[in-house]
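User: What would this chain look like folded?
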Amino acid sequence: MTLWRDTGVVLRVHKLGEADRIATLLTRRRGKVRAVAKGVRRTRSRWGARLEPFNHVDVQCWTGQAHRNGLDVVTQAQTVDAFGAGLVGDYPRYTAGCAVLETTDRLAAEEGEPALRLYLLVVGALRALAAGERDPHLVLDAFLLRAMGYAGWAPAITECARCAQPGPHPSFNVAAGGAVCGPCRPSGSVSPSPETFRLLDALLHGDWPVADAAGAPARRDTSGLVAAHLQWHLERQLRSLPLVERG
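Assistant: Here's the prediction, encoded as structure tokens.
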């Protein structure tokens, strides 16, 4: 058996037997990992609460041969950041955080594959949500856009998705891949405001002065386009996204 140690974010947990729990984590070096935490549902467990969604932990595990189901087994966990403490009492931030975790779980589909960029994105998004200094919807949309970039799905914003003609362009079409020029515009395209396109670009590139200055209509339209683009590529709806309250 091999012992390994890494830092990771707990994405989700579910019960196993009477006292154990399986935790799914996105780790810095090993990518997505599912590991058994034995006995953590017993009241006397000293570190079970550390393996809860939103927690950023330093975790030590035995490799899969240590458990009959072939899963790794957690032997130690130390809290690095307890992001959940800043989220659970605030519904908008909590639901945005849930959408971050679910999206991360879906995008890091292959266990054991390194996903350092996605790991850094989710840690940054949860830290920003827990700090409470920015609109949680902007933080969520920035995370979703950058996560889609990690997956190769980032929408075209400043050039036509079909012919690559530099913009700005008047229309957006999810199936086409983002912004589209007049000649390439498919039926069913929408026509967002120029401010919406500026906000999309600002969130993708981290231009927070521009993002923070955006008005409510542009924020709503941007959230709708980001959600539609993400779920078109995922081919099914995220369960957590409809719970996010949009202003």
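Residues 5 and 193 are 48 Å apart (CA to CA). If you want, I can go into more detail on any region.
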